[in-house]
């Protein structure tokens, strides 16, 4: 503990964002470049080095947070990077994309703002790359065993890297033309620039992991045939079956799923397209769904210069402080949070009908209205109470010629053929069934990540990838593995 009084003398300071007027004109990350380094050592000093650190319990990876906080406060970046990478393959991803349940579980957060754990993590990861502390770690020798990983999101990449480093020959199959899954085409560049992803992929290639892009298992390659070619198969395809909104007018043109809209904007950033076919430019946009994907759509539409953008959230506006009765520490509370996209929308007044930051809370979609030619022109909504019952007399209409549905995902896409070709059993909710060792009902086939867990956070996805790798390694080596298994398939976030 570098400064025993740090949490008493140093206020919380977060990574500063660039001015709204500047950042909405580009697709670069919203944060001030190198803005962390001047403040991060003092922020790490705020860690109390708790005897029982609940940040460990809140983080499924089991990150050694007090240890690397202390090392950062002493500016021992090499040791901090070693401790960070001991539990997390991709800390620059989680440092940018994870909502940080560890900070909600920080003991300091009982009565004051918690430690900026996420920012410290990101600073360590970036420093590791800058100083050459993230060199490839190929295995000393090969096992002669082969593994196919289907899906290159955070779960698939984590599993592949762990198994490659254990000496197995791993091939990752990805249906898109580039590696990364939703991190590549679902997450906007202003949240995480893609060079962070690229250098990890190159690191993995240097270690020996092989990548097969533009290959849809179940269509281009039969899943059962793939199983016969490898000693083990890991299914990490994610939960890509999006939820629908079955209301009148849903078939009108101009209503799209968020994951139809966001990948096109990302392809513009990649240079594949000059302009997105679904660009929000000059259009009145309504986003149905109050989660992170909806916020990603919001920030994207703002950058595409939409005429207006409004986001609908069916839940009531959360409080700004934790409700100790319903969401006591150290659980992750549902609070009113202002993401970078909401900050931008509020400053630019993109939604005149909203109270402040483009969101309409406690709002439910009743139906869509067309223009007589089959295109959407309006969205009828109603306010709802805490039980989602319509409040009489609150109906109104928003102009809408582009509607984006960001309602989450229900499970893996069953249309790609993998589940049927392998004969996999499913849970009642549509996810892939598995046992305590991540194994499915098909020998040699394992399932991990959102495809089996259901829609979750990136930190859980990476933890699943590391854990399933340990199970596969035990299977291939006859019952022993030196790979860590941070979670089991039935573990869940802390709740009341």
Automatic annotation (TrEMBL):
Keywords on record: Amino-acid biosynthesis, Glutamate biosynthesis, Oxidoreductase
List, alphabetically, the InterPro entries matched.
4Fe4S_Fe-S-bd (IPR017896), DPD_II (IPR028261), FAD/NAD-bd_sf (IPR036188), FAD/NAD-binding_dom (IPR023753), Glut_synth_ssu1 (IPR006005), Glutamate_Synthase (IPR051394), Helical_ferredxn (IPR009051)
Which SUPFAM superfamilies does the entry mention? alpha-helical ferredoxin, Nucleotide-binding domain
Where is each 4Fe-4S ferredoxin-type domain found?
36-69
One Pfam family assigned to this protein is: Fer4_20
In terms of Gene3D superfamilies, this protein maps to: Alpha-helical ferredoxin, FAD/NAD(P)-binding domain
Pathway(s): Amino-acid biosynthesis
Record-linked PROSITE patterns:
4FE4S_FER_2
Q: Which PANTHER family match?
A: GLUTAMATE SYNTHASE [NADPH] SMALL CHAIN (PTHR43100:SF1)
What is this protein identified as? Glutamate synthase subunit beta
Q: What is the lineage of its organism?
A: Bacteria, Bacillati, Actinomycetota, Actinomycetes, Kitasatosporales
């Amino acid at each position: 503990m570098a400064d025993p009084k740090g949490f008493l003398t140093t206020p919380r300071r977060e990574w500063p964002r660039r001015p709204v007027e500047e950042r909405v004109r580009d697709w670069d990350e919203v944060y001030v470049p190198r803005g962390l380094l001047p403040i991060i050592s003092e922020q790490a000093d705020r860690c109390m080095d708790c005897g029982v650190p609940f940040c460990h319990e809140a983080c499924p990876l089991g990150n050694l947070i007090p240890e690397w906080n202390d090392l950062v406060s002493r500016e021992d970046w090499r040791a901090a990077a070693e401790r960070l990478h001991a539990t997390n393959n991709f800390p620059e991803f989680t440092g940018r994309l994870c909502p940080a349940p560890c900070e909600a579980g920080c003991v300091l957060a009982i009565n004051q703002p918690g430690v900026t754990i996420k920012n410290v993590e990101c600073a360590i990861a970036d420093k590791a790359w800058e100083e050459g502390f993230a060199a490839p770690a190929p295995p000393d020798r090969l096992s002669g065993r082969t593994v196919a990983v289907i899906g290159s999101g955070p779960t698939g990449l984590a599993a592949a890297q762990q198994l490659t480093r254990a000496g197995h020959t791993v091939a990752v199959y990805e249906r898109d033309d580039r590696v990364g899954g939703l991190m590549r085409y679902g997450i906007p560049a202003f949240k995480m620039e893609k060079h962070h992803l690229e250098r990890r992929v190159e690191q993995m290639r240097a270690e020996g992991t092989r990548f097969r892009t533009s290959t849809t298992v179940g269509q281009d390659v039969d899943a059962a045939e793939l199983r016969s070619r490898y000693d083990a198969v890991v299914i990490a395809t994610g939960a890509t079956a999006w939820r629908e909104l079955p209301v009148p007018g849903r078939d009108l043109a101009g209503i799209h799923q968020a994951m139809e809209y966001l990948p096109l904007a990302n392809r513009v950033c990649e240079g594949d397209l000059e302009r997105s076919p679904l660009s929000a430019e000059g259009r009145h946009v309504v986003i149905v769904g109050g989660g992170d994907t909806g916020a990603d759509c919001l920030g994207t539409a703002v950058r595409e210069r939409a005429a207006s953008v409004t986001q609908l959230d069916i839940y009531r506006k959360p409080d700004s402080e934790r409700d100790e009765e319903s969401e006591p520490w150290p659980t992750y509370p549902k609070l009113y949070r202002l993401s970078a996209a909401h900050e931008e929308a509020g400053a630019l007044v993109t939604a005149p009908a909203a109270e402040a930051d483009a969101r309409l809370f406690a709002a439910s979609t009743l139906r869509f209205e067309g223009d007589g030619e089959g295109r959407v022109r309006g969205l009828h909504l109603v306010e709802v109470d805490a039980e989602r019952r319509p409040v009489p007399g609150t109906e109104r209409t928003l102009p809408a010629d582009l509607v984006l549905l960001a309602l989450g995902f229900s499970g893996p896409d069953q249309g790609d053929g993998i589940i049927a070709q392998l004969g996999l059993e499913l849970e009642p909710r549509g996810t892939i069934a598995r046992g305590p060792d991540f194994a499915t009902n098909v020998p040699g086939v394992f399932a991990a990540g959102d495809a089996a867990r259901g829609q979750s956070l990136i930190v859980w996805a990476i933890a699943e990838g590391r854990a399933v790798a340990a199970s596969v390694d035990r299977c291939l080596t006859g019952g022993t593995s030196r790979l860590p298994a941070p979670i089991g398939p039935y573990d869940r976030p802390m709740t009341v």
